[in-house]
Amino acid sequence: MSSLLPILWLTVKLATVTTLILLVVGTPLAWWLARSRAWWTEAVGP
Fold first, then answer.
1. Which pLDDT tens digits describe the chain residue by residue (46 residues)?
2. pLDDT at 35 (0 to 100)
3. Which of 10, 14, 22, 39 falls between 20 and 30 A from 46, CA-CA?
């Protein structure tokens, strides 16, 4: 069981870092896409 703890800890750390990176990158990108007036917004937007 003790050999699994470093593996689980690494998994939790990687998941946390990945989530934070995607939040930092994805939130402004989503905001920009929602506010932009590009030619393709007619095709993908409501």
1. 679 999 999 999 999 999 999 999 999 988 988 888 776 666 666 5
2. 85
3. 22
- Distance, in Å, from the CA atom of 8 to the CA atom of 14, rounded to the nearest integer, reads 10
What are the C-alpha distances in Å from 3 to residues 6, 11, 15?
Answer: 7, 14, 20
What gap in Å lies between CA 13 and CA 17, rounded to an integer? Answer: 6
> Rounded CA gap, 12 and 4, in Å?
12
Angle at 23 between CA 46 and CA 39, to 5 degrees: 30
| Residue listed under structure tokens 């990687």 | 14
Residues 6+ apart with CB under 8 A from 38: none
